């Protein structure tokens, strides 16, 4: 009995950051549906989150990164590329072959399997997270300055209380 050997791929999708959770969920479900249709198997899915793009793509400066690792045949990637080119919410995508001739029956899914869930509607993810080191450094300095100001105000308040007690 011969088994069908698959290839191990990884794909990174950059999706518009303003599409909303429903559209992102539909895109993810479409990916899984297409993978199942072509007898593939999802190994890893990670949401890398919202990041600033190096350059503007279709008037977008930020994008949400989705990372997939899966086992599939050669025809799946062609079909996936066709579907992603059609989808206007996908800014960029890239698929790479990691390994060839993998037998799904002997592949150790438990060792590599990691499936993130898509963020919920009320979760903002890392929306408020700074996207560059400079922003983070400036935010930390501002927080330190604010805590220093608070301590000075407390010291002044304590001195005022002491003067009133003496009178």
Report on this model:
The protein has 167 residues and is an alpha+beta fold. It has two domains: 6-115, 2-Layer Sandwich (Alpha-Beta Plaits); 130-167. It has helices spanning 21-37, 74-86, 109-112, 133-166; strands at residues 6-16, 41-57, 60-72, 90-102, 114-115. The longest helix has 34 residues, at 133-166. The chain is globular and about 65 Å long. The model has no long low-confidence stretch (mean pLDDT 80).
| Tally of discrete structural domains | 2
CATH class of the largest domain: Alpha Beta
Distance separating the two termini: 100 Å
What is the overall shape? globular
The CATH architecture of the largest domain: 2-Layer Sandwich
Q: CATH superfamily name of the largest domain?
A: Ribosomal protein S6/Translation elongation factor EF1B
Helix content: 40-55%
Strand content is 25-35%
| Series of H and E elements | EHEEHEHEH
- Average pLDDT, to the nearest integer? 80
What is the topology, as strand order, of the major beta sheet? 4-1-3-2-5
Q: What does the largest sheet look like?
A: 5 strands, mixed
- Can you tell me the CATH topology of the largest domain? Alpha-Beta Plaits
Parts with pLDDT < 50 across at least 5 consecutive residues? none
The value of Rg in angstroms is 25 Å
What is the count of DSSP helices, taking H or I runs of 4+ residues?
Answer: 4
Structural class: alpha+beta
User: Using DSSP, what is the number of strands?
Assistant: 5
In short:
The protein is α+β, with helices and mostly antiparallel strands and 167 residues long.
Properties at a glance:
single chain; 167 residues; alpha+beta; Alpha-Beta Plaits; 2 domains; five-stranded mixed beta sheet; 4 helices; 5 strands; 41% helix; globular
């Amino acid at each position: 009995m011969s088994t069908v050997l698959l290839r191990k791929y990884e794909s990174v999708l950059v999706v518009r950051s303003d599409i909303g959770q429903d559209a992102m969920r539909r895109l993810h479900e479409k990916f899984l549906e297409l993978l199942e249709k072509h007898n593939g198997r999802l190994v890893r899915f990670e949401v890398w989150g919202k990041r600033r793009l190096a350059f503007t793509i279709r008037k977008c400066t930020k994008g949400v990164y989705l990372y997939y690792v899966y086992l599939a045949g050669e025809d799946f990637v062609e079909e996936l590329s066709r579907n992603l080119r059609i989808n206007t919410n996908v800014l960029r995508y890239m698929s790479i072959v990691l390994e060839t001739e993998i037998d799904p029956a002997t592949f150790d899914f438990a060792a590599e399997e990691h499936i993130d869930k898509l963020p919920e509607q009320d979760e903002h993810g890392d929306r408020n997270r700074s996207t560059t080191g400079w922003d983070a450094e400036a935010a930390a300095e501002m927080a330190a300055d604010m805590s220093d100001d608070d301590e000075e105000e407390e010291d002044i308040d304590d001195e005022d209380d002491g003067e009133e007690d003496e009178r």
